[in-house]
Amino acid sequence: MSRPRLALVPGEPAGVGPELCVRAAQQAWEADLVAFGDGDSLLRAAAALGLPLRLTSADAPSSPGSLPLVDVRSAVATVFGHPDPRNAASVLDAMTLAAGACLAGDFDGLVTGPVNKAVINAGGLAYTGTTELLARQAGCDVVMMLANDVVRVALATTHLPLRQVADAIDASSLTRTLRILHAALEADFGVIDPVIAVLGLNPHAGEEGHLGSEEIEIISPVIARLRAGGMRLVGPLPADSAFLPAKLRDFDAVLAMYHDQGLPVLKYSGFEHAVNMTLGLPYPRVAVDHGTALDIAGSGCADPSSLFAAIQACTRIAHARRAA
């Protein structure tokens, strides 16, 4: 089987994304990487790190010290640590161009670096997150899941104000999310008959209706219907005790109802090696699980572990999908 081709998007050019990609370009991988982004930012990052980098044509093979590139030029020259809203369009252009190449079958997966939502919106572009952007482009339902060596946490809702979370959880969307998560665990991760823990929305999973009714009216009925169809679901569980190590050993993934219900636990348990995955796309997409780190951009201090883990995870899933 030939090596997978992965599209690599550095993300915000003034953040740590370019230097992380430069560090990745020094390594030998089991996939060929092609960067989609501003070549000048990559070269400036290489100079700041004192590392060799030769940018080559997009159809050239990747090798340590070189990086094939689809050059998506920034509107203005970037200064590390100082993002410019005028570059917002080129940041998103690189993302959609790389994702479009995956949809066309030219690449086997997408690996993305961190972007700055506030800067993109300041540039006049409505943007809530890359997960939502890729879902709209592909025209499909997706699920955000973050994972490290300890736990996989998927989200029933993603980037919403907390006031809107309860209204966004309904039987249809929750059913769809659990089916996407279950299918991905089997197909992309090789988990046979996965066990998924489903968290409640309210404290103590609603305390039998005394602290909220969503568990009784929505979450429990969905779990019961999917169990009847053969899925192994546990819950709804109180979020404050579901992540105990003794319990996690019995689960292949945890479905949290909202962003900050599950992700703080995951990041505490292994932030450096955590990755962000978009399940349900026609191609694997894996991202770093950290922000642009503007305060250390260009200093050489950024830890590349999350990007390296993302490349490895995307490569594994690409191989799994090819084999299937």
Blueprint (SSEs and pairs):
Blueprint: E1 5-9, H1 17-25, E2 32-37, H2 39-49, E3 54-56, E4 66-71, H3 88-103, E5 109-112, H4 117-122, H5 130-138, E6 143-147, E7 152-155, H6 162-168, H7 171-187, E8 195-199, H8 214-228, E9 232-237, H9 239-242, H10 245-248, E10 253-256, H11 259-270, E11 275-279, E12 285-288, H12 305-323
Parallel strand pairs: 1-2, 1-5, 2-4, 3-4, 5-12, 7-10, 8-9, 8-10
Antiparallel strand pairs: 6-7, 6-11, 11-12
Helix pairs in contact: 1-2, 3-5
Care to describe what's here?
This protein is α/β, with parallel strands linked by helices and 324 residues long. The protein folds into two domains: 1-140 and 281-324, 3-Layer(aba) Sandwich (Isopropylmalate Dehydrogenase); 143-272, Isopropylmalate Dehydrogenase (3-Layer(aba) Sandwich). Helices cover 40% and strands 18% of the residues. The protein has twelve helices and twelve strands. The protein has helices at residues 17-25, 39-49, 88-103, 117-122, 130-138, 162-168, 171-187, 214-228, 239-242, 245-248, 259-270, 305-323, and strands at 5-9, 32-37, 54-56, 66-71, 109-112, 143-147, 152-155, 195-199, 232-237, 253-256, 275-279, 285-288. Helix 1 crosses helix 2 (39-49) and helix 3 (88-103) packs across helix 5. The longest helix is centred in the last third of the chain and has 19 residues, at 305-323. It is globular and about 60 Å long. 48% of the residues are buried. The model has no long low-confidence stretch (mean pLDDT 95).
